[in-house]
Amino acid sequence: MNVRKRVEKRRTEKMSNTSFRMMSWTFNLIDFFYPYIKKRIKKFGIEKRMTVVNYGCGTGRYSTELAKLVGEKGKVYAVDIHELAIEAVKRKTKKMGLRNVEPILVSGYDSRVPSNTADVVCAIDMFFIIKNPTEFLRELKMMGH
Known about the structure:
The protein has a single domain (16-143), classed as Rossmann fold, CATH 3.40.50. Helices cover 44% and strands 13% of the residues. It has 6 helices and 4 strands. Strands 3-2-1-4 form a 4-stranded parallel β-sheet, covered by helices on one side. The longest helix has 17 residues, at 17-33.
């Protein structure tokens, strides 16, 4: 069975704990040999004091770099539906001394990020798993100015 059919059959968009751990390991390996995150996010137009939502934050590899760009007076909401993602972000931000990242565990598409809060919303490397793109995009739109 191909990957698309397996994803479509799933009741939830949340990956298994094993899949999350494998993804984390893979990303750590990629980041070790080809650290491109800093270069990639420079194209996002992120500036000091901005508020950024990193929806589908995963292991926090983008959230931490975004937090550095927005600075201490900016804010990053690291949003994910997976408990392991939120724990990974908490560990990583604590280790790095970043106090401008707020991890948020969500259920469904309600991010709990206040409306009209975000200067930029990032949904990176996760859109392919969204079952209801219209509802998801509506939620992303609500967050922005």
